Amino acid sequence: MTLQLTRPKGPPTTTPETKRPALGRESRRRHWAWLVAGFPFAFAVPFLLTGVLELNRDLFYGLYATAVACFVAAWARDTRLTRRDFTRNWRWGLLLGAAGAVVMAFIVLQTEDATARPGSVDLAAAVLWRGVLYGVTDGVLLSVFPILAVFAAFAGTRLRARAAGTALIATIAMIASIGITAVYHLGYSDFRSEKVRKPIVGDMVWSAPTLLTLSPLGAPIAHAGLHVSAVLHSYETDTFLPPHGSVQTPANP
């Protein structure tokens, strides 16, 4: 009688299938870590550049856009976001973003008085710099980043697979966006008052296109509509084109 030894059949202990859950959990943790880091970052940029260094408004916009671009690029690379994450539902993002821009323009026209503005060449430059560049940057930091980070943090979970769970995730994402919007505006000295309520309410409007579609195009377009309208209609606004107060630039440089 002989004893035959056989190797037990079954999956090895290091198959891709067993690795995926661990990798998924690690990716979700990294999104949460970046989201937490986004709050002090959002406050520090306007606080340091406008409150401490008191930079010229237009110089601040350029440095602010550069800082946000670097932060978001580092987040996307560290969490291994793919091209698909940034092209999802892009048609709906464009459509709802344009609709949001119209709504934001209407809000500017209804809440701000018309003011003097510079000549044609300076005005065109202001539209591109203060309107488009600054508006898109705000839309990315205040809406796209927190919303996509929250949804990515819940990707692959049971909560994400259910309609009620998705609604709960959307609520969390909206709260995160409102939180970063509030913290960011508190970085400006003149928003450390009841005035901060205005951007908090506005965030619910300009974030909607990205929240509904998960397209990174929606909120930046809507937010750019806000700032472009402010440049054209109320160039000296004390609400829509911070920083205000002591850090000002002449109407016709």
Attribute tags:
253 residues; mainly alpha; disordered N terminus; disordered C terminus
Q: What characterizes the major β-sheet?
A: none
**Count of individual beta strands:** 0
Spatial separation of the terminal alpha carbons: 101 Å
The 3D shape can be described as globular
Number of separate domains: 1
User: What's the Cα radius of gyration?
Assistant: 22 Å
Total DSSP helices:
9
Task: Indicate the structural class.
Answer: mainly alpha
What proportion of the residues form beta strands (DSSP E)? under 5%
Element string (H = helix, E = strand) = HHHHHHHHH
| Estimated helix fraction | 55-70%
Low-confidence runs (pLDDT<50, min 5 residues)?
Answer: 1-8, 10-20, 246-253
The overall pLDDT, averaged over residues, is 89
Write the layout of secondary structure elements.
Elements: H1 16-52, H2 57-78, H3 83-87, H4 90-111, H5 120-153, H6 163-186, H7 197-206, H8 208-213, H9 218-233
Describe it:
The protein is mainly α. It has one domain. It is 70% helix and 0% strand. The chain starts with 15 loop residues before the first helix and ends in a 20-residue tail after the last helix. The relative contact order is 0.18.
